[in-house]
Amino acid sequence: MELWQLSATQLAAGIRAREISAVDAVESCLNRIDAVNPTLNALVDVRPEEALADARRADEAVAAGETLGPLHGVPVSTKLNTPQKGRLMSHGIAALAGATAAEDDACVSALRGAGAIFLGRSNVPAFSVRWFSTNDAHGRTLNPWSAGHTPGGSSGGAASSLAAGMTPLAQGNDIGGSIRFPAACCGVVGIRPTVGLVSNWMAPQDSPIEEPLTFQAWAVQGPLGRNVADARLALRVMAGPDLRDPFGVPALPEAAPAAGPVRVGLVRDVGLAAPHPSVNAALDDAARWLAEAGYEVEELELPLLAEASRLWSLLLFEDMRPGLPGMLAMADEGLRVHMRYAYEYAAELWGDKPDIQDYIQGWARRATLITRLQELLGRDRILLTPVSAEPPFEQDADIDDPVRGRAVVAAQWPMTALPVLGFPGVSVPAGLADGLPIGVQLIGGRFAEDVVLDAAQAIEDRAPRLVPPL
To answer: Where does the record place the Amidase domain (predicted)?
Structure first.
């Protein structure tokens, strides 16, 4: 087995035990990048010399007996929309193709402090908006399972590179499924943590425009890994108090154990998009595996998830509306078409011109939904849902025509409901259908990541291992 095939946990342990050198691990991943990235176009701004220099310093620290971080010497990728000092930050926009970040984002700083070695920047759609990772600045990222299907977005480059073995870990972010959906499309694990668990602080930007409230309150940073253990390890590294983040927690909450057996509520359909047969089959498999592991599984009707998804299309899109002309002026044609269809979908729910009262009432209703869901879940119940009502979409399904474009948004209700509510969610592979990975989503109570990850591990232990045909 080559080093690029090892998990992050295995690499970290081997480097710590002096059985693997960080230089050898990085070289193996760089060789894998050379072999598959020209086809997949998942990583940009790869700098082998810098990565190898960092790896040599990591090996010197091991030899000197220094205290080592939990990811010491482990290669990772960072997302093109996340500031990393001195590295490309184009947002997939041709006009910003040479832009670089002046300072690390908080989550990048946490990975650096844990000893991770940065290999490259993962590709995104323009402004990280679509569920398809293509842009005019860097081109299209392919799914390692099928060139004709999306690798997901906006962390599509992260998931594609991870599944293909370019790095064992990837950093992503999520405001509408941007971690969880790519993970499902490429057959890896993605964690959207509770809002505030991982700092979302970014260094002050030159732009005079402040982030909209939805971006501040809903966007999270999180990890993607090839397995649950790796994603859990990376989450522990990234999590931590940071009072610079207005929604950050001042201290990590104590994880109280569940009072009894953890119950699972299976939610298949909330009335926005009927699940595809392969999605239903994946849910059936995951429910059976959880029952085998000792979980109590029952099917639930949960209309509040549909309500939360509808609020996503109101609150996020109204927050984006003032800046939309400027954004679209810089965007590629794909983003312009996607936004037109997405706003048409929102208009079907809220009318052409929602007013300030709709917006205010939407935020007020959100608080009620959060309270009700937390009361339902506590620490002894989780939800099992689709990742999407459909398998991975065909490339550019969101811009083919208005009807299909709106159907894509509707199918993503499991991705859009959760950011509104701020609860943790994990996307975990559940198998293949017609040669494409199918994932399921697990949702837990606020700050109950451990409970959700335990259930994800139970599924992973029983699901077939997915290796793309590269």
So the answer is: 24-453
Please report the pLDDT score of residue 207 as a whole number: 60
Residue 447 pLDDT more than 70? yes
pLDDT at 202 (0 to 100): 85
Would you call 353 a catalytic residue per the annotation? no
Residue 154 annotated as catalytic: yes
Catalytic residue status for 28: no
Q: What does residue 441 show for φ and ψ, rounded to 5 degrees?
A: -110, 140
Percentage, residues of the chain above pLDDT 70: 98
Q: Tens digits of per-residue pLDDT, 266-283?
A: 999 999 999 999 999 999
Pick the catalytic residue from 146, 161, 178, 427. Answer: 178
Q: Which listed residue (21, 79, 122, 313) is catalytic? A: 79
The predicted structure's pLDDT at residue 203: 75
Is the separation of the CB atoms in 239 and 193 below 8 Å?
yes
Residue 87 lies in domain = 3-462
Task: Give kind and range of the element (H or E) at residue 428.
Answer: strand 425-433
How many domains in the chain? 1
> 288 in helix, strand or coil?
helix
Token duo for residue 359: 């917006």
**What is the CATH number for 230?**
3.90.1300.10
Give every CB contact of residue 348 below 8 A, 6+ residues apart in sequence: 406
Question: What sign results for the dihedral spanned by CA atoms 193, 5, 386, 350?
Answer: positive
Residue 468 lies in a domain: no
Kindly tell me if the per-residue pLDDT of 261 is higher than 90.
Answer: no
Cβ–Cβ under 8 Å, residues 152 and 185 = yes
The answer to whether the beta carbons of residues 341 and 406 sit under 8 Å apart is yes
